[in-house]
Amino acid sequence: MPEGDTVWLTAHRMHAALAGRVLTRFDLRVPRFATADLTGRTLLDVTPRGKHLLARVEGGLTLHSHLRMEGSWRVFAPGQRWNGGPDHQIRAVLGAADATAVGYRLPVLELLRTADEASVVGHLGPDLLGPDWEPAEAVRRLCADPARPLGEALLDQRNLAGIGNVYKCELAFLARATPWLPVGKLPDGVPERLVATAHRLLEANKGRFERKTVMAGGHVDRPDRKVYVYGRRGKACYRCGAPIRHREEDDRERVSYWCPGCQLGPGPGPAPRR
Question: Which residues form the Formamidopyrimidine-DNA glycosylase catalytic domain (predicted)?
Fold first, then answer.
């Protein structure tokens, strides 16, 4: 489940492999752009923006992709077997003389003018891993709707860009609030600490694909403890020992995990119909 730190690392690996190199292969396997051919042009840079990825190509064009739940980009050396999935899941191939980036299961893939990038990322809030990071503005946006549940507010990329379902659950735990507590009910100072923690977590994890959040709570580091609640349904909370609970949401197959002993606030409403 890609989040902002995963997209950041993916973009930087693609940038290291392809930036400044002439494209010898450009293949988009989506009907709208299947005939596009940018071979012979230089790939200028690959930039992450929240959970979006922008690959800018000579001539004022940008390949925009979003990984959502299942997408990925993999970089391969010449002769290396492409092992990111079956061939029918490949949506894009960007190749140069000494490296090839292959995009698998990309639900969003489009070619647009670089000058028009704002049409796809201009709505985003401050990027947790970007040069425009503004914690005060992120807090302002997060708290703009006091009645909104915390989990929804954290996932809204218009508030702060880069948080996905894993960080939503972990940040709510660290704030000692359930994902359904209205933002306006958070104690004074908690929104500021929450935003600072989000920034610290993504910064700490952006250089690796194996995510770790346990150290954010000041606990003694243990190799067997990666996250506090996410994916730990029924297991004992590291703080209080209560079994971690989970709830399937009705939006985009998301699941919320929380500790009923440590996190204060309302629980989920009626279970969504299937």
Answer: 2-103
Contact status, residue 142 vs residue 108, Cβ threshold 8 Å = no
Q: How far apart are CA 180 and CA 268, in angstroms?
A: 6
Q: Which domain holds residue 73?
A: 4-121
> pTM of this prediction?
0.90
pLDDT 10s digits, 240-270: 999 999 998 755 557 899 999 999 999 887 6
Annotated catalytic residue 254: yes
Catalytic, out of 3, 191, 232, 268: 3
- Catalytically annotated residue among 49, 51, 141, 206: 51
74 in a structural domain: yes
In the residue annotation, 243 being an active-site residue is answered as: no
Annotated catalytic, 58? Answer: no
- Answer yes or no: 51 catalytic: yes
- Looking at the fold, whether 101 and 172 belong to one and the same domain comes out as no
Residue 82's alpha-carbon distances to 36, 71, 74, in angstroms, are 22, 15, 8
